[in-house]
TrEMBL record:
PANTHER family: RADIAL SPOKE HEAD 1 HOMOLOG (PTHR43215:SF14). Residues 419-447 have a biased composition (Polar residues). This is MORN repeat-containing protein 1-like. It holds the Pfam family MORN. The keyword Transmembrane helix does not apply. Keywords: Repeat. InterPro entries: MORN. Residues 324-372, 408-447 are annotated as: Disordered.
Amino acid sequence: MTASSKQQRNSRYYIGDVKHQLRDGFGLYVYPNSFFRYEGEWKAGEKHGHGKLLMKDGSYYEGEFSSGEIDGNGLRYWASSGNTYSGQFRCGELHGFGVMQYGDGSRYEGEFSYGLREGHGFLLDKEGHAYQGSFHNNKKHGEGQMTCRNGDQYEGGWILDQRQGHGVLRFIDGSIYEGQWRNSLFNGQGSMIHCSGVIYEGMWTNGQPAGGASKIVIEGGDVLEVFQDSPFTVEVQLQNNEGEMTAGENGRVLKLSAGVRYTELPPSCSSTTFLKLIEDMEEKPFPTSFGFECISYPLMEKMLERDHSRGSAPLAVTKSGFVLTDSPIPEGEVESGSGSDTMGGRGAPPSNLDGNLQFSGSEDDWQPPPANQRVEAGCAKFQNVMLAPPPTNYRAFLVMDELEKQKAAKKPAGRASSEKLTSSLDRSADSRSNIVSHVGGNSKSSLADSVNVRAGEYVIMVQDVTSPPFLNHPLPPAFVLLRVIPPKNGKNSKSVRKESK
């Protein structure tokens, strides 16, 4: 029988070599359903050896066949998804080592078991995340490492595509978390070293510190009192929602600032020049927790000369409820009305507080604003803080003075009222003259000889300025009223009462 006659046999479906009336050798076979077409090697009537199986939708397989089955190494293409696989097969399934290029841009290189990713492999997903590690049932499962598209790196346990168990996450910004995971979130015991310097160690729940700080608390109640032109200390705690100190948190950066209550100028003000001066000022009020707004007021840090032989300590607001000083100041009662929020009272600090706490008399001793403080074991302390002399043309005081003038002008004309108003205005002018001379002039006289700070109520604010914010959530600012009290008749008292509203 000639080769030509062999190829004509079963010509409706098959054209090729035949041996013992069976397809054997090379041939082309079109299946009766016309969807499949095979072209390649045959043996004893079965596909065997190298061949190509084409499908009507454009899909195909090309590679090794054994006893009629896709078996061995080959290339498979799926037209519907655009996936392409090159690797090992068994009984028509992806089995063994191979490379799958997915139509969505993902790529897997590793082990397969009957069509599923199983064992060790490398996966680059469509988002650009690269995973290398263990797989089970087509999912990341076991130990593995992932490098995210943004550069973050995770190494640890996985269960069903979720980070689970113990793992370490290194953020691209330098932050590091090490601890327990559940459902790809921090859950359980863990510690984080944040790129801002914040360190938290403790329990986590759904990605957030279970005992982490939720608020800033200024110790000492809602109102602190301090003598005029005296340094003081502000102690701060970070607390959680239960009001407990977060001793497991360190490193947040806190900023101390001050303000004076913002007062709107009434429409009755007729001074065009004054109104223009106020409008030109760029200072904008900021909100407080007391229901009113404030204008920022400068703070500074005082360098102190101490008499160590007397065991002195700087003036401070303490947990026991008193403002203490290292000098035996004031024994009399505090001047009545000193708590007024009009800030109208003025007084000059003594040039020498019994020799223990002294002003050096040099402008160089007055430092810039208090340095920001890092939290240690849930606490922070701002020491030797002072209210600075008010800036020239300080808006809040200008408005207060203008209101004072209007109030005085409404009183019935008389010698007493006139003298009182004149005396008040003279003191105001003299005070501003001394302050301007110190701040902008060349005077080197003792600061204690000038009037620096008005008596009355100020607002102290502590802000979380950690940068970048810890877990992208800065703590809300804390506020406290600071009542500045002038000594009565120049006498000092040993302590000043601290109030809580």
